[in-house]
Please model this.
Amino acid sequence: MRAPGRCFIPNATTGMPTHELLGFVGPTRVLRPERATVSRACIETAEGLVAAIPGLLGRSRPREDAVLSWVLLPGSILWLAPRSAEHWAVATALPVSRREDVAPVLGAGEIAFGFVQPEPVWASNLSTGYCPPPDCLERLCLHLSKIRINTNRTILQRFHFGTCSCQPDSIQVLSAEEPFECKSCFLPLQKVRSDL
Model:
């Protein structure tokens, strides 16, 4: 059953909803045309990951962990991009000026791959553009496992996102262990909803 205001991707076998799509909730001021062009790579295999990392980092051989932005699109399409890339630009790859034109995602955040082994050292759901729920990290790990990238030792950094009336234009980022309250006035935060 579909809840009002939400968009689900149905399971191909059962037709029941399995994954919630997340819309862009960040500030529209970041939707600038010059930010839309990003270097990105679609990761479909472990070999493709190894081949993509040097180009995304801008150097032939990584000297430390490769920290990148990630977005997971419907159809289990994983895009990686340099850490400085805006998640909306990685997902959409087109200039947009309205929230409604930004591509929805199943998850977004940052991920670090080891420079010795192409395995994720850590992954997070840190994206103030999409404010994805922490469970999107399980979707990411499942996708990586399906393409034979080991995630058994990956540290998952889970964040929550909220707003407060004392700073209405600001999205506050809290770790899962922190109390869900404003860092300025200590009142409870309003949860940011990014589901469509």
